[in-house]
Design a protein that fits this description.
Elements lengths: L2 H8 L19 H23 L8 H20 L7 H17 L7 H8 L17 H34 L9 H41 L9 H42 L3
Length: 274
Amino acid sequence: MDPSEYIAHHLQNFSTAHQTSIFDIHVWNLDTLFWSIVCGLITIFILHLAARKATPGVPGRFQCAIEMLVEMVEDQSKAMIHGSRTFIAPLALFVFVWVALMNSLDFIPVDLPGRVIGWLGLSQVIPHHRIVPTADLNGTIGIALGVFVLMIYYNFKIKGAGGFVHELLSAPFGAHPLLWIPNLALNIIEFVAKTVSLGMRLFGNMYAGELLFLLIALLGSIWSFGADTTVLGFIGHVIAGSVWAIFHILIVLLQAFIFMMLTLVYLGQAHDKH
């Protein structure tokens, strides 16, 4: 493969069918589903293990790290949610750890999944495999849709059906009947924008990171494309790869934190009555 074919190959998901349009509900990206579920189960296991082994005495490193994380999420949820946080605070904690784990899969060398599949003799069955679920727009929009469902649920729960409908028709311009349609249109646009931006923000950052890792990987194999710059490519690969991997640690955690904070902000807004 030439460089463009190499990148195109790594950016294709293992899907149930070939996508023929921008929106095609018949296509399922199985690798995104698999790694999302795996990271979700690991998140549950980590948090369950921390809760089960928690002691009132001097905490160990693992318990201390989880307690710091719980305290951070608890403080943020207190500031955002004016009401019961019995479900929302644990949800925010789960979202942060889950998204951070999915983002962290970007640190796995880009060619390793394909090599493992080849070693297992499954190359014909699984011709493509993308290991980072958050670098797939389907994965991030799927999580954002879950947050959207919770926004609608808490709007109905806190304000009641009548109160929520009244807010949709009267905010922000006023309750005059002539303003109902503009108010409703603006509120619908707001809900759609929140959901789409929540998913697109995470996807855009992780997709860019994945693409940069692929470009850095090409530096290390530039000799295979007929260019007599083997040493230069290797040095560039090692230096650039190391620097970007270190910087990417910040991106991985920052994007998980932003996603968690926006989830709390949106659910907090659902608790506010106008």
